[in-house]
Write a structure and sequence with these properties.
single chain, mainly alpha, Endonuclease Iii, domain 2, Endonuclease III, domain 1, 3 domains, three-stranded antiparallel β-sheet, 5 strands, 55% helix, 8% strand
Length: 280
């Protein structure tokens, strides 16, 4: 049998050397053998299921703040006068990043093709069944019937199982994945059953805070975009061309559109906002 060191295992599993050592000492690494002051770990050993890896114990959320004088927002105001009106109405941009990557993808899969209200209700049930921590361990403890009982469709259950298997076997290693380019991350996530461009872009924007992602697959974004530009032309090519002026801060622009929708600002005719701005 081929063995690797603690350092090599830690790198492979995307966790710290100290944490790997602790799991060896606590008997959580199957087949690990004490070798002097180090440990020898079977090369084919899968990463152990451990609450600290998957529950976001160390970091769950991180707050990000952009004031209206910051470079990205000043840039957007300069390049898009209609978006500038939205920004003037909303003000500084504040949001939380979801740093529990596995849980984020699980809940995003649950929310596919559902309204925010419906997705939130099902995810609240799921979180309760998981003991208020969506982890590999808690998800694996739930049967397909139980997941279906709380409102998750059979196909989505298959997607969640595939995600869980790939994370647990290190085919998806968040520590390595998150250092890749946007395109590479989307490519890798697209290899998980049920994860397409929409889910991958939500991950890039809301988990990794990548600043130049245009979520034209998202219904909420399209609704706000349609309002902002007073248009029914929602063809992908048209949107990409029209939003070229947002680059390299497309995600920031999209977040303002989401804020406009969530705050009810989109219920006001955009032309009235423009007239009010012009009369100042």
């Amino acid at each position: 049998m081929e063995y690797i060191t603690v350092r090599e295992a830690a790198s492979k599993w995307g966790i710290s050397i100290r944490h790997t050592q602790e799991m060896c000492i606590n008997g959580k690494v199957k087949g690990a053998v004490k070798f002097g002051r180090d440990w020898a770990i079977p090369n084919d050993c899968l990463r152990p299921i451990d609450e600290r890896i998957t529950s976001g114990r160390y970091t769950n959320r991180k707050q990000v703040n952009w004031n209206t004088t910051s470079e990205p927002i000043s840039y957007l105001c300069k390049n898009d006068k209609k978006l500038e009106i939205v920004i003037s109405q909303i003000g500084d941009l504040r949001y939380n990043l979801h740093l529990d990557y596995y849980a984020f993808l699980v809940t995003t899969i649950v929310g596919q093709q559902l309204s925010n209200k419906a997705a939130q209700k099902i995810n609240e049930r799921l979180n309760k069944e998981c003991g208020n921590k969506i982890t590999i361990k808690s998800i694996s403890s739930l049967s397909d019937d139980k997941l279906n009982e709380i409102g998750i469709g059979r196909n989505k259950i298959k997607y969640i199982r595939d995600l869980t298997d790939k994370v647990n076997s290190c085919k998806i290693n968040f520590s390595h994945l998150n250092k890749c380019s946007d395109e590479k991350i989307m490519f890798e996530l697209n290899h998980i059953k049920g994860i397409g461009n929409w889910t991958a872009k939500m991950y890039l924007i809301f988990a990794l805070n990548r600043l130049d992602v245009l979520p034209y697959e998202d219904g909420a974004f399209l609704q706000a975009y349609k309002w902002l530009y007073n248009t029914d032309d929602l063809k992908t090519e048209t949107i990409i061309n029209n939003c070229e002026k947002w680059k390299p801060y497309s995600s920031i622009a999209a977040r303002y559109l989401y804020k406009a929708l969530d705050s009810g600002l989109t219920k006001t005719n955009i032309n009235l906002l423009i007239e009010g701005k012009n009369n100042e």
